[in-house]
Amino acid sequence: MPSSRKILFENRSIVVPGEVVAIGNYKLSTGVFRERDAVKASKVGLLDVKGDKIGVIPLEGSYIPSVGDEVIGKVIDEGVNMYLVEIKAPYNGVLLKKIQPDKPTKGELRIGETVMAKIIRFDRGANPLLSIDGPGLGPLRKGMILEVEPSKVPRIIGKKGSMIKMLKELTGCDIRVGRNGLVWVSCKDPRILAVLAKAIRKIELESHVSGLSDRVKAMLEEELTKVREGS
User: Fold this and answer.
1) Average confidence score pLDDT of the chain
2) What gap in Å lies between CA 215 and CA 218, rounded to an integer?
3) Is the dihedral of CA 90, 40, 122, 119 positive or negative?
4) For residues 54 and 56, what is the distance between their CA atoms, to the nearest angstrom?
């Protein structure tokens, strides 16, 4: 390859709009554009390099990992020193069995088990590094997983945690929300679980409408009254 041409990211790295992904005379596929000698991404996605052809595979609706995010995932593989965790992102998360020699993770995990973890390192060129050391982190046993658009997670949590607090107080359920769009819920009564799932879906679908908290509260109180009167 001529020295005047250079790819600035590893293949399958996450890139964002306006980011220069290559310099030089490459053939362009979808998701990129040329600006003078630079090839730039036009959308969020995975860099796709095939020979001298460059493009970006779009990731609309996908979760892009960020350091500090708490995510919910499923253990899909186990190695000698690590677990591989699927977190609804372009890359699987890596959870080391020992983050530090004197600080083991909380017990053994099993393949297929659900876990809540924090992203402690991610540089877009490698798998996110996860940790379950911290309050509220670790295996999530029993319960049920609901899936929402990652962009709607802030509305489910609410300002200063107001929405999630209301959901917990009215239903009495245990609720954990991952920034990657997975919500784990555990309720003693399956009928209340169904009402809670309906409320979370309402928040997702009506996240753009003002007065959402009041409408969700009214719906929950009405539905929960029916459940409790019918018991």
Assistant:
1) 89
2) 5
3) negative
4) 7
Q: Say if residue 8 is exposed, middle or buried (CB neighbours under 10 Å; 0-12, 13-18, 19+).
A: middle
Using pLDDT thresholds of 50, 70 and 90, give the confidence band for residue 228: confident
Give the strand pairing for 38-41 and 32-35: antiparallel
Give the global pTM: 0.75
User: Domain range holding 219?
Assistant: 144-229
Rounded to a whole number of angstroms, the distance between the first and last alpha carbons of the chain is 73
Residue among 125, 167, 128 at smallest CA distance from 148: 167
What pLDDT shows up at residue 107?
55
Edge-to-edge strands, sheet with 174-177: 144-147, 182-186, 174-177
pLDDT tens digits for range 43-63: 888 899 999 999 998 876 678
Question: CA-CA distance, 184 to 193, in Å (whole number)?
Answer: 11
Residue 220 lies in a domain: yes
Do 106 and 180 lie in one domain? The reply is: no
Residues 163 and 200 grouped into a single domain: yes
Distance between alpha carbon 179 and the CA centroid of its chain, in Å?
5
* Average pLDDT of the residues in 185-209: 92
* The pLDDT of residue 105 is above 80: no
Query: CATH number, domain at 198?
Result: 3.30.1370.10
Residue located via tokens 């600006």: 35
